[in-house]
Specification:
mainly alpha
């Protein structure tokens, strides 16, 4: 959809700099030519960003599992918030190290054999268990395209890639109720507009039972933990694989969820 919107804005079929929608920008971006700041970057004007934001917001609210639309919404609405998150990372020793080294979480960077060999209860082992049980992959996170700052593009990419880590830390499944709870935590933690929208409008898709549990128990728990925990982007998770998950939760001030929601909708 994002590509269709861009094509509508460029009826001759080319984006700024002569790129056709959907073309591979990685090689050109590497030379920083024609306005590209990083691989996959697509330069856009404020008007284009506004149209992308409106279109992606509608699709994301209609189908919260359209991760591509959620990604576009985050990139086109979160510039000021991303700067604040970047500044938080710069002020924290662990966060600053992450900004310098730019670690990535993907199947290409994860040592799955090592994670599997770690003791049960360790962050790495439990993260791998989460991926397996919920049949999700870190490679499903879309690359950043519409953020016009290379460092901020990494910040939002990092946020996406640690999303499953937050599910692991919070003990939340990937059903719609679990996703909404994580969105409330992320909204408090990051202030990103897409997280706030997801937290506010996601509950419209819940059953009456799920909505009652969310409002009375899960939202207060998520908000309390989001406020108490330090910035989740300042954790170098890749260097904490061996840390017991319980110890990490205690370090962050994250308490156990008030109920098991794996079978709820």
């Amino acid at each position: 959809m994002a590509t269709r919107l861009l094509r509508a804005l460029h009826p001759h079929g080319r984006l700024p700099g002569g790129l056709r929608p959907g073309a591979d920008v990685s090689i050109r971006a590497g030379s920083h030519g024609a306005g590209w700041l990083y691989p996959d970057h697509i330069p856009t004007s404020p008007l284009q960003k506004a149209l992308l934001a409106a279109g992606s917001a509608g699709m994301a609210l209609y189908d919260p599992y359209r991760h591509d639309m959620v990604a576009v919404l985050g990139e086109t609405t979160g510039c000021h918030t991303l700067k604040a998150l970047r500044d938080q990372m710069r002020r924290d020793p662990e966060g600053a190290q992450i900004l310098r080294e730019r670690p990535r979480i993907s199947l290409a960077t994860l040592d799955l054999g090592k994670l599997q060999s770690l003791p049960e209860g360790s962050l790495g082992h439990e993260y791998l268990r989460f991926l397996d049980v919920n049949r999700v992959s870190p490679d499903t996170r879309a690359p950043t395209r519409f953020v016009d700052d290379e460092e901020l593009a990494y910040v939002i990419q990092r946020y996406r890639e640690v999303h499953d880590m937050l599910h692991t830390l919070l003990g939340m499944p990937t059903n719609i109720l679990g996703e909404i709870v994580v969105k409330w935590f992320e909204a408090v933690q990051t202030g990103l507009p897409m997280c706030i929208l997801g937290a506010l409008f996601g509950p419209l898709r819940l059953s009456a039972q799920g909505l009652q549990l969310l409002v009375t128990q899960l939202i207060p728990w998520a908000v309390q933990n989001g406020r108490r925990a330090p910035c989740i982007l300042n954790l170098y998770y890749e260097r904490r694989w061996e840390q017991p998950l319980g110890a990490l939760r205690e370090e962050l001030g994250i308490t156990a969820p008030p109920l098991d929601i794996r079978s709820l909708k």
